[in-house]
UniProtKB/TrEMBL annotation, chains A, B:
Pfam families: FAD-oxidase_C (PF02913), FAD_binding_4 (PF01565). It comes from the Bacteria. It is an enzyme of class 1 (oxidoreductase). Keywords: FAD, Flavoprotein, Oxidoreductase, Transit peptide. PROSITE patterns: FAD_PCMH (PS51387). It comes from Terribacillus saccharophilus. SUPFAM superfamilies: FAD-binding/transporter-associated domain-like (SSF56176), FAD-linked oxidases, C-terminal domain (SSF55103). This is D-lactate dehydrogenase (cytochrome). Its cofactor is FAD. Belongs to the FAD-binding oxidoreductase/transferase type 4 family. Residues 34-211 form the FAD-binding PCMH-type domain.
Amino acid sequence: MDIVKELNKLIHPGRISTAAAVISQHNHDASYHPAANPDVVVFPENTQEVSAVLSFASEHGVPVIPFGKGSSLEGHAIPYEGGISLDLGLMNELKTVGDKDGHVVVGAGLTQFQLNDALKKHGLFFSVDPGAEATLGGMAGTNASGSYTVKYGTMRDNILDMEVVLPSGEIIHTGSKAVKSSSGLHLSGLFAGSEGTLGVITELTLRVYPIPEASVAARAVFNDFEEAVTAVVRLRTAGLDLARIEFVDAASVAHVNRFANASYIEQPTIFFELNGEVEHLQHQIKRMEELLKPFHLAEFLTETDQTSQERLWDARHNLAYYYIQAAPTKRMLVTDVCLPISELADSILHARQAVEESGLEAGIVGHVGDGNFHIIAMADFEDANEVTAAKQLHKEIVDYALAHDGTCTGEHGVGIGKKSYQSKEHGTAYDLMRTIKQAIDPRGIMNPGKLVD
Amino acid sequence: MDIVKELNKLIHPGRISTAAAVISQHNHDASYHPAANPDVVVFPENTQEVSAVLSFASEHGVPVIPFGKGSSLEGHAIPYEGGISLDLGLMNELKTVGDKDGHVVVGAGLTQFQLNDALKKHGLFFSVDPGAEATLGGMAGTNASGSYTVKYGTMRDNILDMEVVLPSGEIIHTGSKAVKSSSGLHLSGLFAGSEGTLGVITELTLRVYPIPEASVAARAVFNDFEEAVTAVVRLRTAGLDLARIEFVDAASVAHVNRFANASYIEQPTIFFELNGEVEHLQHQIKRMEELLKPFHLAEFLTETDQTSQERLWDARHNLAYYYIQAAPTKRMLVTDVCLPISELADSILHARQAVEESGLEAGIVGHVGDGNFHIIAMADFEDANEVTAAKQLHKEIVDYALAHDGTCTGEHGVGIGKKSYQSKEHGTAYDLMRTIKQAIDPRGIMNPGKLVD
């Protein structure tokens, strides 16, 4: 069968491509995982077209791989079994801004940055902020989170409803526009984080928030790695109303200085944000200073100027790119474990030791308010020793997290990179996930090889 | 086959009962739904016993109906096809209080009141507060919520992990103790709200919160129903940090006065709670007063005394029981729609008109901060006219909610009472729910006849 010829009957030929440049845009992501070409890339304009493609693919057993911006760190959008790369980029409409209801309705191809640009004039913002310019459909697919998650929750927490096209081509809604519901099974939660293995998300109804009256950024610089980690736990459990609490190690501060033209002290640092009413903020900053007194700080600074704050958070978000710029011949492997807060200090100390033993160029950063941290490790994937070291480091970090009540991935998702840990993490529940996958996608066309088999 | 004889091989005979008194404790719930007897009631002591019962039931096609406290309002625990009523009451251990992690591990048979009593000395509380003394397993089963949900979320939002016994007898964990995860399919969300139709919840890891530094209750009494409803929407969308925002109509205030020995003005009233730091509270109360100025209030009072506050909230929680006490020969039908906030004012005004047209004794109350409200209607179920009126009223309210982007049940769940609305609310997604049910419980032993077929 000639797939392209068949697709031409369903979709305007101008939105179906096998051009080498288009294929290679859709054969990789932002990670170290090897590239693999799709047979064809399709750019649907609406849900009916997605439905037509899936019906066709189901009938003929053709793999379909949803594609947003290709910013995944775990190979989610790489078509290892060929087939159709379904690029949702044209379905990027901001359909409704429900000011009173605090929600928006968006096409799955809209990116988080586009959404926030559009929301500004309504005095609203969307809170889920992974570093990359990801699409909201992709972010739902991996249950993305980010620096604001400690206050505003993950992607899944902010989804009211999704329109999803099932492998059969049937179109469903997973929820409603009510902020809570006890009706039916919780399909929004099931499809969020399903990584395109159960269907294609085409539209999302998302919770958005009023831009706070004011915000303050604070920066606490420590002389000692261990003290910094202990302070994180102290602040996290003190009940402060923190909007962001980010740990950055000395190596990573050095990268910020180099690539973001900054001059922060190159020592373990915690970046905070508090937001809300001005009086409330002042009170909270005071409490934070008191809580930090027992520690030996090299510096404690607060920043109320909006531009300086944005510059700081941009630098934090861009950290992964700085590591890539610093080692252009290497590729990036990022760990993503998340542990209970009580296990966090020990686990980051363990991670630092593992990094040192690996001999790799690497830094530790993290959304530590949630117990989630990353090792950004650069390795030459042509060098067998470095590859072994990187994979060994990854395994060591995940094994530690699983042995201490944690998870192998806090926000990046499973894709192919965490798949070998699924059985260990979920035990018999992984069989149940397979049962669900098999029931919803019996032909196995949806993003084969990712998350579950 | 003699079920009891077979069960005797698995469970100590002292915890298997067919005594009339025990059967009749397990043949009804707190609603108007007709009673039906189980064949036998089993009281497992641990997860292995639950597993043994389910393996046996699966093999022989015997229905299993999980039972907590029987406080359901939609017939969830009534065994309409006979079988085994599985009473989790003995599995009520508080296993872990993770102070640093802000979570607890509990047996499914522990009640919300028992949990909160035990947490007090740790300076912690559990936030999900339906009116009844429900078990935490039952509350997870229906995705319960309550007056604190506007600030702290629903049951599902507060579950990190559950131990669940599948129909096959296999034991799984649905999550981990990390506060966020992108690993695997979201089984915690799927089993929360599945109403015992997919398996038996035996243990839960739940998020708990520090008891706030201070709290203030406020009471705004309106001269006019319409103004009260408009004020709710105004306050809700102003970004105030409200912990509770409860609307109570005049008829319901009258019931509170009569049965809780109070003397509130018998007019439409909003009860609030704000909690947090003292300074923050003062500022918020001031803002609330400003926002309420344009309305013609009969009274605005704040209450900082803890005992008075508790008395007020107990009265609110007990409202349904007051209606039952006031009409002891009648039975209670409670609607439970939830709509987007922008639709709330019109929907409550519509509800009031529908109540008046029904001729039934009824009141309107609600967790209006979430868009969720209830009509508590009393009807004589021996009187065909009253039954028709009650069912017509229910249908009218649900149809209105579904036509305005809402849901038929915000917190009580589907059971048998909302089942006829599932297809209309979920459309083709209801077929998918059936597919999932069929995949996980192919013999259909788990709580047959509820939620999905």
